[in-house]
Automatic annotation (TrEMBL):
The reaction(s) this protein catalyses: N(2)-acetyl-L-ornithine + 2-oxoglutarate = N-acetyl-L-glutamate 5-semialdehyde + L-glutamate
Note: May also have succinyldiaminopimelate aminotransferase activity, thus carrying out the corresponding step in lysine biosynthesis.
Binding site for pyridoxal 5'-phosphate: 96-97, 129, 214-217, 272
One GO molecular-function entry: diaminobutyrate-2-oxoglutarate transaminase activity
PROSITE patterns the UniProt entry points to: AA_TRANSFER_CLASS_3 (PS00600)
The protein, known as: Acetylornithine aminotransferase
């Protein structure tokens, strides 16, 4: 197949054709176990019948009317999100980057409204990932994603993840926001320490600073709770969501309180497609399934099984030196002899009929469907074992 897409993507040689549940078939009919989940997007697997039904029903009614109007699907989804979180108001958009862009813009606008234009500094974490817009790529603490696009937006500081002392030293009365991923996903599936998030909340309160949790990857049941910060008992002022929110249909959301949302007056921010009826109809159905006790309990159980299986494979093969994560967001750190070769391993796994991910150059990431059953999980581990043994002999 000739490629007419810009070269910023390096595509896999396998071209997916269709999927069902946790299995995918390519154009030649070869089957794969999907433990990647579209990078934590396909929370209910491929082609879930309830999502197909919701999309089909809405497609026959209304696709798009612009944000001059609101719609029942958007209002219903916003009500569900606020009912089950700390938030009072929701801004809908199309992606995690857009949700974070909105959160960061709101933080600066709120600080300007209440404290003046000097309170504009943003603190983020080293090796964070918050999106690919110029603002979010600048806030993300990875130079490899931002250096080619300088000059970057100013007044952004980075502190080491899980370093409460560094955060305390960096924050000041000029800080308008601190943004943190409860689990750093793209940088190796690194969970935050409770003490770090608790310190962030305390410091933000002391300095009248907004605490933003980026739950784009960790939210919507991924860690076996609706949102990952629930594990820590720390509540943000603003939270972002996307990825699994639409179960595969593009949608993002920024959630906040009435007081903070009041700074987004008419015309201060917007989006053409955000909150469109198709996306919200699918997300409504996905939300109901994901937020059920049965799904969250299943995700917790399957996450424990997957972590145990991966730990056993690491002990057997010597390829993994650490397995970490929460629920069904799991990272396997490669042992020293295989350091920084994660890209090779996922290609070998693909050759064995298994779809997995990297999280940086030294971590293999797993983010399968929250509904993955024992049969698919066991078959996935069987294929992974074969891939590990094969790759180890070549490495």
């Amino acid at each position: 197949m000739q490629n007419h897409i810009t070269p910023n993507f390096v595509f896999s040689p396998m071209i997916p054709d269709h999927g069902k549940g946790s299995r995918v078939w390519d154009r030649e009919g070869r089957e794969y176990i999907d433990l990647a989940g579209g990078i934590a997007v396909n929370a209910l697997g491929h082609c879930h019948p309830a999502l197909i039904e919701a999309l089909t029903e809405q497609a026959g009614k209304l696709w798009h009317v612009s944000n001059i109007y609101t719609t029942e699907p958007a209002q219903t989804l916003a009500a569900k999100l606020t009912e089950h979180t700390f938030a009072d108001k929701v801004f809908f958009c199309n992606s995690g980057a857009e949700a974070n862009e909105a959160a960061l813009k709101l933080a600066r606008k709120y600080a300007r409204d209440h404290f003046g234009e000097e309170k504009n500094e943003i603190i983020a974490c080293v090796n964070a990932f918050h999106g690919r817009t110029l603002f979010t790529v600048s806030v993300g603490g990875q130079a490899k994603y931002s250096r080619d696009f300088a000059p970057l937006p100013p007044a952004i500081t980075h502190v080491p993840f899980n370093d409460a002392e560094a955060l305390a030293a960096a924050i000041s009365e000029k800080t308008c926001a601190v943004i943190i991923e409860p689990i750093q996903g793209e940088s190796g599936v690194l969970p935050a320490d409770s003490a770090f998030l608790e310190a962030a909340r305390r410091l933000c309160d002391q300095h009248q600073t907004l605490l933003i949790f980026d739950e784009v990857q960790t939210g919507m049941g991924r860690t076996a709770k609706l949102f990952a910060h629930e594990h820590y008992g720390v509540t943000p002022d603003i939270m972002t969501s996307a990825k699994a929110l639409g179960g595969g249909f593009p949608i993002g959301a920024m959630l906040t309180t009435d007081k903070i949302a009041s700074s987004l007056g008419p015309g201060t921010h917007g989006t053409t497609f955000g909150g469109n009826p198709l996306a919200c109809a699918v997300a409504n159905r996905a939300f109901d399934i994901i937020n059920s006790p049965e799904t969250l309990q299943h995700a917790e159980q399957q996450g424990r099984k997957l972590q145990a299986a991966l730990t056993a494979l690491g002990e057997e093969t010597g390829v993994f030196q650490e397995v970490r994560g929460m629920g069904l967001l799991i990272g396997c750190v490669l042992a020293e002899p295989y350091r920084d070769r994660a890209g090779e391993l996922i290609q070998t796994a693909l050759n064995h009929g298994l779809m997995i991910l990297v999280a940086g150059s030294n971590v293999i990431r797993f983010a399968p469907s929250l509904l993955i059953d024992d049969e698919d999980l066991e078959e996935g581990m069987k294929r992974l074992r074969e891939a590990l043994l094969s790759w180890r002999t070549q490495a």
